[in-house]
């Protein structure tokens, strides 16, 4: 896998982790405005980065969250378990 692609994928996973952690925190602290602002910032960055990644490398999931170019790109390698980090 090219370094640029791997770097982008790792950044996607990092932002997803931040969003999950903040989401869990906000489940128990829904009035924490600072945490909500952080969550919204990371969620926005994540959405933009996922869109950028998918435009370059194809979809990150196969459940209708992203359109595919022709030919159908979901089947292109590497599969998640084949990626060497």
Give the radius of gyration: 15 Å
Give me the number of helical elements. Answer: 2
For the termini, the CA-CA separation is 10 Å
Helix content: 55-70%
* Total count of domains: 1
Sheet with the most strands, sense and barrel status: none
Number of DSSP-assigned strands? 0
Oligomer state of the chains in this structure? single chain
What's the shape? elongated
Approximately how much beta-strand content do the residues carry? under 5%
- Run of helices and strands: HH
Structural class: mainly alpha
Provide the low-confidence segments as ranges. Answer: none
Mean pLDDT comes to: 85
Keywords: Capsid protein, Virion
Protein name: Spore coat protein CotJB
Domain Protein CotJB: 8-82
Organism: Crassaminicella indica
Descriptive report:
This protein is mostly helical and 85 residues long. It has one domain. Helix 1 runs antiparallel to helix 2. The mean pLDDT is 85. Pfam families: CotJB. This is Spore coat protein CotJB. It comes from Crassaminicella indica.
């Amino acid at each position: 896998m090219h370094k640029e692609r791997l770097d982008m994928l790792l950044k996607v996973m990092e932002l997803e982790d931040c969003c999950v952690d903040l989401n869990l925190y906000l489940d128990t602290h829904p009035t924490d405005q600072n945490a909500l602002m952080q969550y919204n910032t990371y969620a926005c960055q994540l959405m933009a980065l996922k869109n950028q990644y998918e435009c370059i490398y194809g979809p990150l999931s196969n459940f209708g969250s992203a359109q595919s170019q022709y030919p159908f790109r979901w089947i292109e390698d590497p599969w998640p378990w084949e990626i060497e980090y």
